[in-house]
Structure formats: C-alpha cells, structure tokens
Amino acid sequence: ITYIGAEPIHLLVTANDHNEQYWPFESAAWWEDPSFETTVFTPVLTERVELLRSDSPADWVPAEVLARMMRALDYEVADPAFNETDAESAYIQMETGDSHLFLSDRSNPIYGSIFDGYDGALTRIEGSISGAGLPQGWLVTKEWADEAGITTMDQINADPSLYEALDRDGDGKGEFFTCPENSSCGSVQSAQTVFAGWDNLTPFQDDNDELWSEFLARVAKGQPAVAYVWTPSKFFSQANVGVDTMWLSVEDASVLDDSNPLAIDVGTYDSQIAPDGTKGFGDVDPGTCLEGPDGCQLGWLPWNFNAVANSDWLRRNPKVAELLRVTQFSARDLSYFSAELDELDKDMPPEEVEVRVQAIADDWITANNDRLEIWIDVARSAR
Question: Alpha helices of the chain — where are they, by DSSP H?
C-alpha cells in the first residue's frame, strides 16, 4: 500500500532489532529478508515543507527549482511565491518552527549576516546555492589583455603603455570603471587604489548602466577597458567572460587589508582579507581568469548565498539536507536569472512576474536536467 487517495505515504517498519524508514518502497530488501518479521506498519502522510524565498529576485528561480526537486522526493512543498519575505522575518518564522527552509542567507567573511544570531536553532548549509562563492572583481577586454600579455592590475599600473591606453581624459592616468559615488563598492576601490600604490590608475565612478554600456562598447571593438563587476548581476551575464572579457588578477600584496587608507568611519570593514587570513578569492573557472604571479587572485572576497533551515527539522529530513548540500548554481546561472528578471517591466502584475519565473525555471531545468537528476538521486539515497 503506497498511497492514501492521491497522497504518497511512507512506511515506518519496526520488527525485532530493525527500526528503519522506507521512502516509499525504495527498496524491497526488508520483505526479502526471511529473518525479518514485520509487526508494525505506521503510514505517514507526505510531509509539507514551508519553503520561504527572499525578496531578492536573484533567489526566485533557485527557490522554484528547489521546490520542484523536493516534490520529486515526495515532499509537499508550499509555493515559494506565496512565502516571500526578508531574511530577518524568515529566521524568526523558522526559529519558532512555523516555517522550515529559506533561500537565501547572504554572507561575506567580513560582514557576516543576521543569521549569526540564530546559530543553533537554525542551520546554514554552507556551500549550498552559490557553491564556493560568488566572485566580484575587475574584468578586462580579453583581446587587449592577450595582445599585451596582461594578467594583473599591478602590471597595468607599472607600464605606461598599458595605463595610458586606459586614459579617457588626457590626464596621463588610466581610468577603470567602478560604481556610483557613495556606493560601498566604490569606496572599496578608492581605498584599494591608495593601499596598492596604483598611482597611475584612477577609479572612475558613474551610473552602473552608463559605465557598463561604455565598457561593453570598448570590449566589442577590442579596445582597452577595465571594469568592476559583481555576481549575480545582469552585467556579468552580458560580459561573455572567457570569450570577450577575463577576470583580472591582482598581486597578493595589493589585496586591501583593514588599515583604512582613506581614514573613513567604516574603512576597516572594506578589508578583503577574511578573519582566517584568506585573501580575496580565486576559485573561478581557470578559463575565465588571467593568472598573475600569485595565481588567480581577484582581490575581493566572495559573497555566499546559502540555504538556511530549522535545525531540528533538517535533522529529521536527511534527504533535504543532502539535496541542499549538493544543489549549487554557478555565478553564470544566478546572473542569468537576475538578468532575465531585471528586464521585466517594473509595473508588471505579480502574477505575470511569476509566469516569467516559471518559464525561466523551465528553460534552465531543460538545459540542466542531467545535473538535477544527479542531485535528486544523491538526495534520495540519504538516510
């Protein structure tokens, strides 16, 4: 007996020294064992999962993909579109047991996250969703870098033929594109320039769309250009990294520390060296990064998007725990989702937005079905 009405059930089998749970009838081993005398069958209706998604569009498609995979594991999953909330509200709901799972906690080795106040009651599944981390740093025109043998920002700063090629205003210094004024990423790059002694380079700040439009125009012509980008973002998805652009490395000695070279109030938090001493980040596809003397060193710490769950509930559901452990989206995947949703009309009715979320999920699942099957099979085998 595997169903009650339309609901799949689980069987808790207890006999002699056996006490195992089968989900449902994955294996017939228990009834093929002649020494196994079954005495109790307890049907358990499929468990309902209250899955929360964040109010950031970057999480909407991953939440939908995860919900579908959990349904394939026989869970009844609440539609994440109706469970959208901010992180703080999500953690309160999960701490009380009203909800079970949230996508996603955003954390950085320096800044941390509000999750830190809930450690114990809640579990962050490290490495889930964004894998090793979401890179940020500088991209450079690949054609120019290949022709000039460029690998690092330090090299550009030291060579007049390189930094003068980036000079937009005729002041003899090269400009690299950063972020709008008064933005945190802009202040980090200003501090980075002073700290590293990049006296021949100047961070150029303006509206992100304006900067990126000029950067892509230069890249399309093979012209010298350097621009900061973060992931996930529509900008990264437009950069065709590894083909038209490449991640530009920095030397280890140029990775910004907490010395606050600009002497600003929050300057110590601009450090790109983690508390454990890790400098920057370099765990990206080698085919997309220009390796300098210290290897692929982007000079920026990564951001991490992780799933968070109620700890007790996660222990009772090892299949979900394993699914979350192996489910990882690349920076390219997450940037693609962001780019697709960023193009939507801001006045579009919510129900039409959800139709688009579903369509993006459909397309991504079709293109990545082999990956999903592996993730589900690994999770299904968990005990």
Answer: 29-32, 60-72, 87-96, 142-148, 153-158, 160-163, 184-196, 208-220, 234-238, 311-316, 318-326, 331-342, 350-367, 369-380
Residue pair 104/80 in contact (Cβ under 8 Å)? The answer is: no
Please tell me the distance from the alpha carbon of residue 189 to that of residue 195, in angstroms, as a whole number. 10
Chain center to CA of 383: 27
Tell me if 67 sits within 8 A of 76, measured CB to CB: no
Question: How many CB atoms are closer than 10 A to CB 152?
Answer: 22
Q: Measure the N-to-C terminal CA separation of the chain; round to a whole number of Å.
A: 22
Asked whether residue 300 carries a pLDDT value surpassing 90, the answer given is: yes
Q: H or E segment at 229?
A: strand 226-230
- Which residues lie below 8 Å from residue 108, measured CB to CB, with a gap of 6+? 301, 302, 303, 304
DSSP string, 32-100: H-TT----EEEEEEPPEE-EEEESSGGGHHHHHHHHHHHHHTT-EE--GGGSEE-HHHHHHHHHHTS--
d(CA 306, CA 102): 9
Backbone Cα Rg of the chain: 25
Q: Please compute the mean of the pLDDT values over residues 318-331 and round it to a whole number.
A: 96
9: its two tokens: 């059930």
Q: pLDDT, tens digit, for every residue of 266-296?
A: 888 899 999 999 999 999 999 999 999 999 9
Q: Cα dihedral angle (96, 102, 104, 107), rounded to 10 degrees? A: 30
Residue 121, class by beta-carbon neighbours within 10 Å (0-12 exposed, 13-18 middle, 19+ buried)?
A: middle
Instruction: Report residue 350 as tokens.
Output: 């919510």
Distance (Å, whole) CA 148 – CA 152: 11
